[in-house]
Design goal:
Blueprint (H helix, E strand, L loop, with lengths): L1 E5 L3 H13 L4 E6 L11 H5 L13 H6 L2 E5 L2 E5 L4 E4 L2 E4 L2 E4 L3 E3 L12 E2 L4 H10 L5 E5 L3 H12 L3 E6 L11 H12 L4 E4 L3 E6 L3 E6 L4 E3 L2 E4 L3 E3 L14 E3 L10 E3 L4 E3 L13 H15 L12 E6 L2 E7 L6 E6 L4 E7 L2 E8 L5 H9 L4 H6 L1 H4 L12
Parallel strand pairs: 1-2, 1-7, 2-3, 7-19, 9-16, 10-11, 10-16, 11-12, 18-20
Antiparallel strand pairs: 4-5, 5-6, 8-17, 13-14, 14-15, 21-22, 22-25, 23-24, 24-25
Helix pairs in contact: 1-7
Length: 403
């Protein structure tokens, strides 16, 4: 059996590992249009910052691929003939018995006037990092647009080079659909503390320049000089190359076991879209932890050991410069909050009809097993608050429950 995996991000690599564990005899081919060595995409920023080299971001050393007999092909997937089970990689036909589509996402650039100027870009692929490296040489001022996690990463990267950063965020407070007012204030303060000129309620009208970007003009008429513009306004699934080979919507449509409409074809990671997502689960979740879990599920399915995709309690983590964030379950929408903050850190427990449905922690490390149990077992909020000392990692974080 020949298993072909298109995309060597965490979903594709995890799937390859699980195929090999379940089927020692399978032939496995991992196709990437980006790099021969799978790497940790979340670590790209640290290459630019000088903390890591590219090799430090590799998911595995060379011997792993040899020992597990996983072939790697560098080339761009150009098309798929699902009827004949043939993948087109830069004009070369690769036949398969089982196929995984794990081509991830690509940055979305809004259609502002001037968005095509040199020095305007997003950050997702290794090539984006190379472009950013070249585009910021000699730059003293930059603008970052979009308050999501990519935007924050771009701002932090630029600040490590001593570049002045104006950070334009459309909402009147920081990520209002994600954070409470107190949390938004903490994050905004953390960003500004690192010398970033954070502008809330700012919308881009146009980008100015001749061949290269020179400034960003907002709808209030203010002009922000910039030799580089980083765009972090979102991503979309990379599925254009598929044509009509499988059913798609915003992403590749999959069932509860991550199977597509095509015979012998699965999808996982940022490009996969659940046809019927479970309650509280988004149809598309462009998150590293989700991609890894989906890769494992798809890998077992391709190896003949199918199981339902069981996402469990949602989890994600990130940081806003040096302010760490963890989130579990649902922290927005219907419900109420129990919230604690000391002006530097915060913990928020979301509850609905008396039961815990989500936890958000800024500057405080909580144990995933404990927070997930509160949500999965529908603990009463008062019980969860009393259990907070058991959830903490921070040894000095012990007396807040009584405050």
């Amino acid at each position: 059996m020949h298993v072909v995996l298109v995309g060597n991000g965490i979903a594709g690599v995890t799937a390859a590992r699980h195929v090999r564990k379940a089927d020692p005899a399978a032939r496995i081919t991992l196709v990437s249009g980006e790099a021969r060595e799978p790497f940790a995409r979340t670590a790209l920023m640290y290459i630019y910052m000088g903390v890591l080299t590219q090799r430090h971001t590799w998911l595995y050393e060379e011997r792993f691929w040899e020992e597990n007999r996983i072939d790697r092909v560098v080339g761009q997937a150009r098309g798929l003939d699902s009827g004949r089970s043939i993948l087109d990689v830069d004009g070369a036909a690769i036949s398969y018995d089982r196929l995984l589509i794990a081509t991830g996402s690509t940055p979305v650039l809004p259609d502002w006037p001037g968005v095509g100027l040199t020095g305007v870009q997003g950050l997702y692929h290794l090539a984006d990092l190379d472009r950013m490296e070249a585009a910021t040489v000699g730059v003293s001022e930059a603008v970052v647009v979009g308050g999501g996690l990519i935007g924050v990463e771009l701002a932090e990267m630029l600040r490590t080079r001593g570049i002045r950063v104006t950070f334009l965020v459309r909402d009147a407070r920081y990520l209002p659909r994600t954070f409470s007012e107190a949390e938004s204030a903490l994050v905004a303060e953390a960003i500004r503390a690192h010398g970033v000129d954070l502008r809330l309620g700012a919308e881009v009208e146009r980008i100015e320049g001749d061949d290269r970007v020179e400034a960003v003009v907002t709808t209030d008429g203010e002009r922000h000089p910039a030799g580089f513009v980083g765009v972090g306004t979102g991503v979309r699934p990379s599925i254009e190359w598929l044509g009509d080979a499988v059913e798609t919507d915003r992403g590749v449509l999959v069932d509860g076991a991550l199977r597509t409409s095509g015979e012998g074809i699965w999808a996982a990671g940022d490009c996969a879209q659940l046809r019927e997502p479970p309650p509280g689960v988004r149809a598309i979740e462009p998150i590293w932890y989700t991609a890894r879990l989906q890769g494992a599920t798809a890998g077992l399915g391709m190896a003949g050991r199918p199981r339902p995709y069981a996402p469990g309690v949602f989890f994600n983590s990130a940081k806003f410069f040096d302010l760490e964030w963890q989130v579990y379950g649902q922290t927005g929408g219907e419900g109420g909050d129990w919230e604690w903050t000391d002006g530097r850190r915060s913990v928020r427990i979301r509850h609905l009809r008396g039961a815990v449905i989500g936890v958000s922690a800024l500057g405080v490390r909580l144990r995933q097993t404990v927070c997930s149990r509160w949500i999965a077992e529908r603990w009463a909020v008062d019980r969860a608050v009393a259990d907070l000392p058991a959830a903490r990692f921070d040894p000095e974080f012990s007396s807040f429950v009584a405050t």
